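Q&A log
Question type: sequence-to-structure
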Amino acid sequence: MWITLVSVFGAVMLANFACAAHAQESDGESRRLKRHVFLFPTLQDSAFVTTHVGIREGFALYEVPNLPVGSLGTRDIKLSGIRTSLDLAVGITEWLGLFGFGRALLVTGVDRTSLLVDGASVEFVASGGVVVRLLKSEATGTQVALRAQGTYRDGQEVTLQPLISELVDEVSDTLAEVIEGRLGHLILVPTAETSLSGGAHAAQTILPFLSAQASVTFEHGWEERAPFLLELDDRLNQDSDVFRMQLAAAVELDLSLIVAPVSLLAEYMYMHGNRSADAEPDTDLGSSNIGLGIYYVGRPNLQLGVSGVTSLDAAPRRGLDEQGDAEFSDAPTLSYLDLILRYVW
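Response status: OK
Response body:
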């Protein structure tokens, strides 16, 4: 709750500051190509070197339909989350800049069955990096930049497989009895990850009211997990290497010339990767996400709007049937809605 209150207060203060500084605005020159001022996408970083501060306050919902839980049949699992993000950037020159990002995420169950554990999980993310502009052409309306950054994540991962294994063994217990027991250690796994990433980002003005952005990013991470093992009555440290590749694209339609000072931003992001660990088989990672946002664009240096994102084809979660054999859920969905407020100098 305190995270939400701080974010709302910060957003109000940022809006007041933006209004007071309106007279000194530079008409969004740092993000302008051929008379078009670009928005910052949600699913990727931009190709622009800017000086800005932004706040994002969001709500997330993760649903796993028909998860097999052994002799108990299937259960629909729902987890909700509140996340707060802060991003900063400083343009050192027109072609070189620094940026930073921080996020806190709080996750809880929607109901008693979905919670599966007393309490909640929290994740913190912090990252920083450098952006270098390689090309800016007003003639073609094109800009290209490279970004490199380091990221650190710390928190707890919600994992269902160990709990399901115990449910198969505890055939005499009801689900409520299991929830009240000590199996909460099994579903929340402390995790930490340090990663380095780099990528190329491009922006293109198509028409004064239409633009596109795209990027390709590669990331290598070193992950630490500490799952709880009942037979040891303790957590076991596990290290793994993670590789991810992300391809993203965004298309913006500016309606300010024909309807109202608003823009629509449609986005798509595909992620493919692999996690390798000594103690477990390699795991393929993958997801596809689509996003749609609506933003007020009456002031070039103020980005204010709402963005929604949902997963398309997330991999089913693994469960167990009554015989203890692997069986999978229906495709889960991860959706979140963000209120975005950002001021650009």
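Response note: Residues 1-9, 11-25, 115-119, 171-181 have pLDDT under 50 and may be disordered.
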